[in-house]
Amino acid sequence: MVLGGELDELAPIKHVFETCKNVPGPVDIVVYQNERHAPGRLPSSQLGPHWYAMMADWLAARVRDRIPIEGARYRYVTASGKVEQRSMP
C-alpha cells in the first residue's frame, strides 16, 4: 500500500505512479486531495477514511488474515471525504 497526499513534497505522486509501474505484483494506492506528505490537516483526511486506520487494516488483512491483493487499485479521497475509485494513470 502506498498512501500519501496529492501535494506530497517528499514523495511526489507522479514518482509514486512511476515506481508502482515497476512493481511486479498488485499495488494499492490511496491519494488524499490537497494533502502534503503527512495527511491529517485538511478536509480530505479529516472527512475521509482515517489514513492510519486504513494502513493498519490493510496490513492486518495481509498478515493476520492472509488476504491477497487482487489487482491494482487507485483510490482518490476528495476534499468532501468521498473515496473515488480511479484508473491508474
Structure notes:
The protein has one domain (10-86). It has 3 helices and 4 strands. The chain has helices at 13-21, 43-47, 51-63, and strands at 2-5, 28-32, 73-77, 83-86. The two termini are 16 Å apart.
Shape: globular
- Alpha-beta content class: alpha/beta
- Largest sheet descriptor: 4 strands, mixed
Report strand order across the widest sheet. 1-2-3-4
**What is the CA-CA span between the terminal residues?**
16 Å
Fraction of residues in H or I helices:
25-40%
Put the structure in a nutshell.
The protein is an alpha/beta fold and 89 residues long. It has 3 helices and 4 strands, in the order βαβααββ.
What topology does this entry show?
Elements: E1 2-5, H1 13-21, E2 28-32, H2 43-47, H3 51-63, E3 73-77, E4 83-86
Parallel strand pairs: 1-2, 2-3
Antiparallel strand pairs: 3-4
